[in-house]
Amino acid sequence: MCTGKCSRVVGVGLWPLALTCIVCNLLLCFPDWDTQYVKGGGRLLTPEVLYLGGLVGGGAMILIPAIHIQATGRQGCCGNRCGMFLSILFALVGVAGSIYAVSVSALGLVNGPLCQVRESNGSLGTWGQPFLSTDEELSKQSYLFNTSMWDTCVNPPGVVQFNVILFSLVLAAALLELLLCGVQVLNGLFGCLCGTCNKKQARDPKQTQY
Is the sign of the CA dihedral 9, 10, 13, 19 positive or negative? Predict the structure, then answer.
């Protein structure tokens, strides 16, 4: 596979991953599919949701590089050594964005959701992050592997499962974005040194025939 074709594959692959991050981050703003938690500046939302790791890091900072990276795989102003060099810079932006998305989603999983807990006497307690723990406590036991602890959160209903699923999707998508952007950095470097194959294919149209 020449560097131009590789860029097209990377660019196309980044689109669905970025959209996944954006959609998941937006959905995290509506636990229990209710809009009341967004009101008041999102004070009842999990803090990591407001960091917008999926919307900004895994979304906007990936979509913009994806446009250029995909363009370097086509014949035109971007399908040359200069375009490949720029694709390296855009891919590095994507690397930074995906690392941010990975960090925020991992924190969201480790720290757990912001929720209203039930007191020992059965009454509703205050809002907080009941699963927030130190490194030592985390190494001993995590709520992620003990589903019996999930009932600690009363409101929003089902917020633990909701956050775990969506933050996990953002984390998985961001890791794949990181991999693809890393591949494009190497691919762009080879493209700068060896070219994109686009000119060669344009001179010899027989290569595109089956």
Answer: negative
Structure-token pair, residue 155 = 């409101």
| pLDDT tens-digit series, residues 163-198 | 999 999 999 999 999 999 999 999 888 877 776 665
Bridge partners of 127, per DSSP, are: 116
Return all residues near 146 (Cβ < 8 A) that are at least 6 apart.
Answer: none
Query: And the tokens for 62?
Result: 């990936």
What is the SS3 assignment for 99? helix
Residue 178: Cβ-neighbour burial (10 angstroms; 0-12, 13-18, 19+): buried
What is the spatial distance between Cα 143 and Cα 35, in angstroms, rounded to a whole number?
Answer: 26
Distances in Å between the Cα of 42 and the Cα atoms of 25, 47, 156, 167, 171 are 13, 9, 13, 17, 22
The CA-atom distances, in angstroms, between 53 and each of 21, 50, 77, 172 are 8, 8, 32, 13
Which residue carries 């985390």 as its tokens? 138
pLDDT tens, residue by residue, 122-154: 677 889 998 887 555 555 678 888 888 888 899
Over residues 47-86, the pLDDT tens digits come to 999 999 999 999 999 999 999 888 886 655 555 677 788 8
Residue 32 bridge partners (DSSP): none
Cα 59 to Cα 175: distance, rounded to the nearest angstrom: 13
> What pLDDT shows up at residue 207?
46
* Tokens (6 digits) for 204: 């010899």
